Amino acid sequence: MSANIAKRRLDYQRATYQVQQIELEFELHPTATRVLAVSQLQRHVVGADTLWLDGQQLTLVSLQVNGVEWSQKTQNDDGILLSGLPEQFELKVRTVLDPAANSALEGLYLSNGAYCTQCEAEGFRRITFYPDRPDVMAVFTTHIIANDSIPFLLSNGNLIAKHQLADGRVRVSWHDPFPKPSYLFALVAGDFDELCGDFVTQSGRQVALKFYVDKGQGAKATFALEALKRAMRFDEEVYGLEYDLDIYMVVAVDFFNMGAMENKGLNVFNSKFVLADAATATDTDYFNIESIIAHEYFHNWTGNRVTCRDWFQLSLKEGLTVFRDQQFSAAMGSATLCRIDAVKTIRTAQFAEDASPMAHPIRPDVVEEMNNFYTVTVYDKGAEVIRMQHTLLGAEGFRRGMDLYFQRHDGQAVTCDDFLAAMQDANQVDLGQFSLWYSQSGTPELTAKLEQTSTGVQLHLQQQTPATADQPNKQPVLLPLRYELHDANGRIETGILQCSGAQQVFCFDGLKMPVVPVLLADFSAPVKLNYAYQTDELLYLCQHAHDGVARWDAMQQLWSDLVRQSVQQQQIATIPAQMLDVLRQFIQQPLADLAFTAELLTLPGYDTLAEQYAEIPVEMILSALEHYQQQLAETFAADWLALYQRLLPVPYVYTEQQVGLRALRNTALRYLLRCNNTPASLWQQQYTEADNMTDKLAVLQGLVRAGHAETSRMLQQFLQQHGDNVQLFDKHSALVASIGDNSVFGLMDMVAQTALFDWKNPNRVRALYAVFGQQNPAMFHQADGEGYQRLTSVIAKADSINPQLASRLVTPLLSFRRFAPKRQALMRQALEQLSQQQLSPDLSEKLGKALHG
Ligand code: B3K
Ligand code: ZN
User: Fold this and answer.
1) How far is CA 398 from CA 388, 389, 392, 427, in A?
2) I need a surface site. Which of 35, 64, 376, 730 has the fewest CB within 10 A?
3) 270 CA from centroid of ligand 1 (Å)
4) What separation in Å is there between the alpha carbon of 485 and the centre of ligand 1?
5) Is any atom of ligand 1 closer than 6 Å to the C-beta of 842?
6) Which segments in the chain show pLDDT lower than 50?
7) Nearest CA to ligand 1 atom 4
8) Closest ligand by atom to 184 CA
9) What are phi and psi of 531, to 5 degrees?
10) How many angstroms is it from 523 CA to the middle of ligand 1?
């Protein structure tokens, strides 16, 4: 393994020089693009005369300071150190790049023949030698020279010039007036369909909106365009934030490492988060598109106008922007459903990360490869930390803090502490203890007890955070506990407590035991809660709690308790009769929110349950889940059928009401597919008559999950009908990767051999292998270790092509210490084999921590 260099948050030093302006000129060529970068620099640290320029995998042609080829320099694989520099100077660097050979998809690369860039976090150093760090903010002007066969030549900011050159090529120029770090630079050049719209800001400024997608797909960007307008309006209404350039462009490309990228004025998106129509996208796809479009748009203020001082501060922009996109999604649809989704993410992936060798605070202290820290902790736990501030300060207090944050820091690169200081100063509160959420990793555990006293009821709380791989000692954090207390006299008291001590007691006068408590209403803090609920208390809460999340949570808890009993007794525990009664009632009389009812009728997933055990009892969780789903299917067969037949399909439109209808109807279908006497005509009819992908896919998913005999025939038919569309090809791959029996290995091999599969395209690889590793626990954890071997050989192959992709695929293997000895040994062995190869810094960091940390 190569030795990575760990960087530490506390070692931050100011840049010795600031770049005022940079003028870039690209002469595009697939294998030899020439880049000229001319920057104006100004000394920033008194007495300094050296400057570090980051640069990787570049061919340097020349480097001049004030017009003179600079000899006072030392170069290594990561960049160049210049010395003997004057106070002010012009730096002129010429480099040559090979976009066609760039399969890492960082820097300038080709996606289906179109040039595009990805510079966050550290990709700009693959374009030119530059101080590639977010606290160096410059005004960018970009010139792009290309053959006139490429109709769209795009970069950040406003188009300022377009010339025909004597040699027949075209030269276009873009200027972005807002100083920005290099990670927000973008260039796109290609032939696309262009979809145009416009938006008038609240102060009356006209903004041109433009979407660029693969030829022939223009109509499929309509939903994303409308979503963008809704997001723009939302940010004005809720935060008073307006868009600031004359043009906002979104480009969709199929080769992309993540969801999307918020480059100033020129977002680049993974095409699966832009393109949608009823025939190819599901309700979930529509939801994700709206949320990611909003996320990238919201970054224009939280990320671009105010950016991060260094990458340790990533959650400054990501946690905040995820919180903002969650607020937006909640306002566009069912707030409870959005919250349930977010809670699932925390309880599965985030709790797992905190319990893994990769545990880190939302503001990490030590980083080897920055790309490894775009994590569910930085993003989603980061959003929870912002949400807690919103809860503690109230909506108005939070807005005051945001206003002060922009007033103080617009145009700056700042830290998480600056954000907290704005919240604190605007509200005259002390967030000192709260700030531990930024520095401490791990999942706090709250234990609660209620006691009757002479005057009322006491709530005893204990808080404790177990040690994590990165930090042995933990302190109590401040958290808001939103509660509902339902007492013996029918009195209901609600409020928010501030928990801050290792042990605390709160008194509620006038209440009478027995009291049924809701203790984390709306999941008011990202913690684990222990309270010794009785079954009848949980059954009461899932019907009567005021908070929707608490009702869902109570039902989840009932299932978790049953699985836990099964694990303890080593045999499947019986579902209590009253619980079946309550479930029957939800099926027979669905609540007005149909999607919510669907959630109440769905068991917790394997991942949620697994996180509740120190040593994960894989087989028992899986067989309990299987058993209970089968039992619900059979016990309520007639009720499922009646429900299914009552919820008649309607012509497809993506609305909250329709999404709910489809969700509940397809929940019923899922159970029906497990019943022997369900006629094949029922699901066949849905499959052939559905006018939308949500309902078609629901049939296939239901068949896969039920292990139905018709599964493979139907998957083949789907591939034949739709396999020429990449979005649908990926859906097929994901279905194949979820097959719960041994045939999955051969079938995955077949998918990998089809013409459309491409090892260089992360969407293709993830749809097959990330789904296998992360959503098929039965086969991934197959006792003989076949699943581990398969995944590691895929990772080895992917790593030589695209390190970021490989590094994400390895996640499920890192937690090998959580499994019983035999399985643990097989997982470790797979990782050790992998670590014997030449690995990227990305994988080395993770394997190093997992194996030797
Ligand atoms: N900021 C980008 C993520 C970049 C990841 C680099 N490895 C997308 C987002 O969070 O909006
Ligand atoms: Zn983001």
Assistant:
1) 10, 7, 9, 8
2) 64
3) 11
4) 41
5) no
6) 1-2
7) 120
8) 1
9) -145, 135
10) 26
Residue type, 655: T
Helix H, strand E, coil C: the string for 161-230 is: EEEECCCCCEEEEEEEEEEECHHHCCEEEECCEEEEEEEECCCCCEEEEEEEECCCCHHHHHHHHHHHHH
Report d(CA 252, CA 221) in Å as an integer: 9
Radius of gyration of the chain (CA): 28
Q: Is the CB of 121 under 6 A from ligand 1?
A: yes
Among protein residues, the one whose CA lies closest to atom 5 of ligand 1: 120
- The number of the ligand nearest the C-alpha atom of 374 reads 1
Q: Nearest C-alpha to atom 10 of ligand 1 is from which residue?
A: 318
What spatial distance separates the first Cα and last Cα of the chain, rounded to whole Å? 14
Each residue's pLDDT tens digit, 257-314: 999 999 999 999 999 999 999 999 999 999 999 999 999 999 999 999 999 999 999 9
CB 354 within 8 A of CB 433: no
Is residue 261 lining ligand 1, measured as CB closer than 6 Å? Answer: yes
Q: Which residues contact 236 (CB under 8 A, 6 or more apart)?
A: 201, 202, 242
Q: Which residues contact 483 (CB under 8 A, 6 or more apart)?
A: 459, 493, 494, 495, 496, 497, 517, 518, 519, 521
Centre of ligand 2 to C-alpha 127, Å, is: 22
User: Which of 112, 136, 108, 103 is CA-nearest to residue 123?
Assistant: 108
Q: Give whole-number Cα distances, 275 to 4, 256, 285, 697, 778, in Å.
A: 39, 14, 9, 17, 32
Dist CA 368 CA 797 (whole Å): 22
CA-wise closest residue to 44 among 93, 85, 74: 85
Q: Of 23, 106, 290, 296, which residue is the catalytic one?
A: 296
Task: Tell me, yes or no, if 599 is annotated catalytic.
Answer: no
How many angstroms separate the CA atoms of 622 and 607, rounded? 10
Distance CA 149, CA 146 (A): 8
State the pLDDT at residue 4: 82
Ligand 1 in reach of 603 Cβ (< 6 A): no
**C-alpha torsion angle, residues 273, 278, 281, 287 (rounded to 10):** 60
- Taking CA atoms only, the protein residue closest to ligand 1 atom 2 is 261
Enumerate domains of the chain plus CATH numbers. Answer: 445-538 (2.60.40.1840)
Taking the centre of ligand 2 as the mean of its atom positions, its distance from the CA of residue 301, in whole angstroms, is 11
- In this predicted model, what pLDDT tens digit does every residue of 186-196 receive, in sequence order? 999 999 999 99
Element (H, E) at 799: helix 786-801
Query: Which residues does 628 contact at the CB level (< 8 Å), separation at least 6?
Result: 559, 562, 572, 575, 603
CA distance 154 to 143: 9
**H/E stretch holding 51:** strand 51-54
Backbone angles phi, psi at 756, to 5 degrees: -80, -15
Decide: 371 in ligand 1 pocket, CB within 6 A.
yes
Ligand 1, atom 8, residue with closest C-alpha: 261
Residue 192, token pair as written in the block? 């696309």
> 174 near 156, Cβ under 8 Å?
yes
> Relative to the alpha carbon of 317, which ligand is closest?
2
pLDDT given at position 2: 41
Dihedral of the CA atoms 485, 489, 491, 493 (nearest 10)? -30
